[in-house]
Amino acid sequence: MKFVDYEIHTGKENMQIDSDLLNNAISSKSEEAIFRLYGWSPKCVSLGRNQKDDFINCKIDYVRRLTGGRALLHDDEITYSYISPISIIPDGESIISSYKYISGILIDFFKTLGVLLEFGENKKISTHYDYCMLLSTGADVCYKGKKIIGSAQFRKNGYLLQHGSILFGYDKEFLEKLFKEDVKGITTVKEILPNITKEEFILKLKKYILSQT
User: Fold this and answer.
1) In this structure, what is the dihedral angle of CA atoms 183, 191, 146, 202, given to the nearest 10 degrees?
2) In angstroms, rounded to a whole number, what is the distance separating the alpha carbons of residues 26 and 84?
3) Which of 154-158, 184-188, 199-203, 206-210 shows the lowest per-residue confidence on average (mean pLDDT)?
4) Could you give the C-alpha distances from 114 to 37, 47, 109, 185, 201, in angstroms and in order?
5) pTM
6) Is the peptide bond before 42 cis (omega within 30 degrees of 0)?
7) For 91-137, how does the pLDDT look when each residue is reduced to its tens digit (9 = 90+)?
8) Is 132 one of the catalytic residues?
9) Is residue 196 pLDDT above 60, yes or no?
10) N or C terminus: which one in the chain shows less Cβ crowding within 10 Å?
11) Is 74 in a helix, a strand, or coil?
């Protein structure tokens, strides 16, 4: 597995990098998975591929993702992307199986920190929610029933791009103002592991990913 080290970019730059990595993998017929970590500056909302933007009611950067799903606020988080030929993922033609395989890498990493995560329960999705982290599916990753990692996927020419948000912390007041929702049912790394810094978390995750290559 190729690892792309953590860097901070604008929303537009981050989505372009993911798109370029996917297209380069396709054009080179790569047989190797890519795992990338990144952050965002300034804070940015990413919209799902077909999502409307009419709910955004404050001045903030926003960008459209290749992937579907609902909006995410990228602020105090670590974002990952995973690019791979579908053929090298066990049962990769199944979207749910591929989600669980990739998210399983993160679940196994959290085990090394003494934290047991689990996949979310399949729940009926309400179209009322614009904010991705308020929705739960069997492919989401939760801690004691609260969502901590939200992911989305895009497939093209036998390859997939999955990227997602690992919540490190969040600004509850700003989230509720942005999405006009009571933010509940989510948790963060800060809440679960209050003594770890973001820099330490990123370094530990990097070391874990590199140990799997």
Assistant:
1) 110
2) 9
3) 184-188
4) 21, 33, 9, 21, 13
5) 0.90
6) yes
7) 999 999 999 999 999 999 999 999 999 997 755 444 444 444 445 55
8) yes
9) yes
10) C
11) strand
C-alpha to C-alpha distances, 104 to 97, 119, 149, 187, nearest whole angstrom: 10, 9, 11, 18
User: Rounded to whole angstroms, how far apart are CA atoms 86 and 90?
Assistant: 9
| Cα distances (Å, whole numbers) of residue 183 to 20, 83, 90, 172 | 34, 30, 35, 7
Asked whether the predicted pLDDT for residue 173 surpasses 80, the reply is yes
Q: Identity (one letter) of the amino acid at 134? A: L
Please give the Cα distance from 23 to 112 (Å, whole number): 33
Token readout for 105 is 């890498």
- What is d(CA 65, CA 20) in angstroms, rounded to the nearest whole number? 13
The pair of structure tokens assigned to 39 is 């952050």
What's the confidence (pLDDT) of residue 129?
45
Question: Which one of 44, 58, 132, 142 is the catalytic residue?
Answer: 132
Alpha-helix residue ranges (DSSP H) falling in the chain: 11-28, 95-112, 172-179, 189-192, 198-211
